[in-house]
Input
Amino acid sequence: MISHINGKLLEKNPAYSIIECGGIGYHIKISLNTFSKIPDQENCKLLTHLSIKEDSHTLYGFYEDAERKLFRHLISVSGVGPNTAIMMLSSLSPTEIVNAILTDNVALIKSIKGIGPKSAQRLILELKDKLIKEDHEITASVQIQHTSAKTEALSALETLGFARSSSEKVIDEIIKSNDEELAVEELIKTSLKRL
Output
C-alpha cells in the first residue's frame, strides 16, 4: 500500500525513525542495519512495508530493497512476525542471514533473540529454495563475496606450491564452518594450518 516515504528526517534512533512527508510525521520501525545506513541529512527516503493487524498499523522501513525482500521472506514463515524479522535484521546483516539459511547454519540463526531451534530449522526449510530461485540479488552478493575470496586464496596457495584440488577442498571446508565472512588473508592463514 505504501511503497516508500521520502521526506524530512525528524528523528533517527536504532529502533525507529520519524520522517515528515506532506505535513505528516511517519513513525517507521527500522533494523540496526538500516539505521547504520541512513545518512545524517535532512532529506531521507525509506522503502516501506505496511503491517496491518486488528490493533495496529505499523510501518517498517528499509534503506535497501534487498533487505525489504528478505524481511518479506522472513515474515512469510509461520511463527515469524514482523518484529521478529526486524530483530533478525538487527542482529545479523541480510547477507549473514541468507548465508546462514543457504549453509544450513541452525546455530547462527538460533543465536538471534526470539528464535528457537524449531523456528531456525523452519526458516531454513521454507526459505532455502526460495532464496536460491528468487533472490539472485541477495544470494549473488553472498556467492560473489565467497567466490572472490575463494579464488584469490586458491591462486595464492597454488603460488605457494600447494595442489589446487586439496587447497580447494580445505577452503570449502573453512567457508562452510565459518559463520562470518572471512577475508582473503584469514582464509589463506587458516588453510595453511590445515594443509
In short: DSSP finds nine helices and five strands in the chain. Residues 136-159 form the longest helix (24 residues). The domain at 4-62 is CATH 2.40.50.140 (OB fold (Dihydrolipoamide Acetyltransferase, E2P)).
